[in-house]
Amino acid sequence: MPEQAADEFWKNLRPIENSFKPDALPEVHIPGAATDDDRYYAPFTETVGSRPLWINVKDNSWSDILRADEAGLVNRHYHPHEVFAYTISGKWGYLERPWTATAGDFVYEAPGEGHTLVAYESDEPMKTLFIVKGPLIWLDEHGEPTGYFDVHDYIAMCRAHYERVGIGAAYVDGLFR
Asked: What is the DSSP string of 103-132?
């Protein structure tokens, strides 16, 4: 039950009865999703961690909060599908682009984009909400493919991390939708 309305104009509205269709899964609600608790961030690289928020195996997609407490680097990669990003804190960007994202900035990455994601030194950790659709294709310095990272790799990475830090690998299963 959500908190009770005080003086809001809608305070006398009642919830919809039977708001879920048969077999519908409930929403994912994660209080404090952008936590500073290191246990929730699976190491994506040596300097950047990822907190999974939602995982869709069928569409090879996920949502996460990417975090770097200091200067960070995510491998060079290419996106065959779109990506959405909203910056919560800190600063980040792509070496190949003319902008730097800061708190409150939104970024849409069109399919067919390759880049090198970096986090800058900042007074606050870099925390960015990403919605990633499709795999990441790892690239070398010439833009040639060297490997890939898809939703199955992401799940395995997160399960291993959560098991290692005592949260338990099954935590990830609750994020599947």
From this structure: TT-EEEE-TTEEEEEEE---SS-EEEEEEE
